[in-house]
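Write out this protein's structure.
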Amino acid sequence: MGKEALFRSAEMSLVQLYIATEVGREVVAALGELGAVQFRDLNADVNSFQRTFVKEIRRLDNVERQLRYFSSQIEKAGIKVMPVPGYANVTAAPNSSEIDELSIKTENLEERIVQLNDSNERLLRKQVELQELRHVLVEAGTFFDRAHNVPEELRASLDNDDAPLLNSDVEQGDMSNGTPFALMNVGFVAGVIPREKMGTLERILWRSLRGNLYLNQVEIAESIKDPKTDEAIEKNVFVVFAHGAGILSKIRKIAESLDADLYSVDEDVNIRREQIHEVNNSIRDIEEVVNTTQSTLISELTAIAEQIASWMVVVKKEKAIYAALNLFNYDQSRKSLIAEGWCPTDDLPLVKSTLSDVTERAGLEVPSILNELNTTKTPPTFHRTNKFTEAFQNIIDAYGIAQYREVNPGLPAIITFPFMFAIMFGDLGHGAIMFLAGLAMVFWEKRLLKADRDEIFDMAFTGRYIILLMGGFSMYTGLMYNDIFSKSMTIFKPGWEWPYTWYEGELITANQTGTYPFGVDPTWHGADNDLIFLNSYKMKLSIVMGFCHMLYSLFFSLVNYRFYKSKIDIYGNFLPGFLFLISIFGYLSFIIVFKWAVDWYSLGMAPPSLLNTLIDMFLSPGNVQDLLYEGQPRVQTVLVLIAVFCVPWLLLLKPLYLRWENNRTKALGYENLSQDVTRISFEEDGEAQVIVHEEAHGHGEHGEEFEFGEVMIHQVIHTIEFCLNCVSHTASYLRLWALSLAHAQLSSVLWTMTFERAFKMEGPLGIIMSFILFGAWFLLTIAVLVVMEGTSAMLHSLRLHWVEAMSKHFVGDGIPYTPFSFKAVLEEPAQ
């Protein structure tokens, strides 16, 4: 592939392809493996259902539907799918005969699986019906037998599946005491109903029949599975007695409307005994058939599971090929396909060699021709990334795509993003945990790439290099803050010394004996005024860091203007914006550093208030209460005048210049030129050399009529946003101070409330509590301080880049580069 293109997007060329119809599919397949051309739709005015290869796509849609059906059946059966050998994006695209064979094969397999499923469902439904009938015969028959005084021996034998059909001892039992229900003009309805609907059935029957019924119900002990949903349902057996055929018909309709299954039961005990015997035999026979059917179905699905992943890759690639071919024009006179698309200029030789290889393999005499087109169309933006820079680029692209050849904020974000995070997260211990987590994911990245990852872990794994750098920078800032798990470190000799003796209740102060070589002196930790000192230090530091970050980002706009050769933007936007920023906030950063550099107490002076200095600078220019340096009133007056002058400069210069330039152009009588020229030249051996196509320069954005009012409105908005944002964005960087303070205080509170308490206990209890409280402290440190606080600091750092920094130079209305690539097609989630 071409060179890295991270500072600016890669140079793009609009290319035109002339491809012989015979090798059109093979050429597109080769380009899909290459992933270097973004095809343009040359049939935008043609309905998607009227395009050339719609029949092929429909056939592949059907195959894809069949594969999804197989996948659902495989998942339902709990069969493991064999992965594609190797990585899917290197699997070669199939030829036409393979697709035809696959289509026929999946059609036959679908018929086979559907038949087996239907047969299995019918058998299971019949099995459920027989089981329910058996429960009805047993439970409802028990009620009949008691009503007819059937002996207990015979009634007990009905529950025994192995009992003989007729028993001479009970066959002669006295049945004369019971009178059949038919002779009493009483009918009944028996069946099975879901238990949750039994109460509803009782209420409806009671109200419909006004209580003229007798209902008996028995709960079925085991649940019955629904063949369709495979859901276990609890059911009851019920018998309803009533007078009259009309009432019984009404009872049946009500029961069936509540999903009840009705069964016929005979009053005679011997007939029921015979029925139960037949039902038990039928259940055993169906179980054998069901087991055979399910075994056959599992065997078929297992065979499919071994190949379905490869089939899915084949179908997705083939479908993508025909979708790309539908974007082409067909030249009937030359029997060729014409395509246009964007390609990185560095990749043009590779694309040409690919076309040549396909043509040679096909044995065609007519070559495939690739030509560069001169165009005024805006090319797509393409940043070449690697596994390290990809995550940082994704952060920027989530906000907006850079304009073509615009400075890419993703490059500086590699350093500034984790560094801004580290200022808010600065703790050597927490940073080390994050660094080790990132290092582990980097070290085992090959193994983790092949493993199944859930959504949350996949997000962390994708940003493993971001986590690694955030942890590394946090360790550095933790050393600067002299903070490790809320405790200080005495690496070097402290620069302050406490007195050796003091009286109880006396306020003692440390004496400075030198300067601590690196970071915050450990003597400050534990002092009564450490919070006051660190607050002031971190607050001022955040303003200085914010100014540097914004100024650094503002200079990228100068780089853009120089690249686009827009002098009016340099003098009309960058220069007044630069002067406005440094005259106020650059001066504020200067006096912060200046105040730090002066030992005011050795001079016998109180340190001046910077807040009062900045307020007086605008409210009373020329008047300074506490001088920082000689000539301060004069300098501040000049800076205020510069800032005030930059506002109309930023507002008026560019619109007035553009109007003057437009009027001058009209006065000279220039008109937009429009030309459409195509040249084709051939060498003597008949090989095509170049085709040049120049599009009309008078169309598009260059040919639009100048509107002074519209330009003025845009410039007014830009001026107001820039001036107000300089104030709000500088204040926004105070989050660096606020989150750093919050993180340090939360870490200190967590240590005090957990692990530190174990040190106050003695004996065996102290040892036991040390282990328990250390575990609680460590778990809360990971969950709260590293994960939750880390996420919070990362989001704040993200906002500082998206809003405060990128607004100084980033337009973000570019067109993303989406080349035709099998890798991208296979990574798309299944619909």
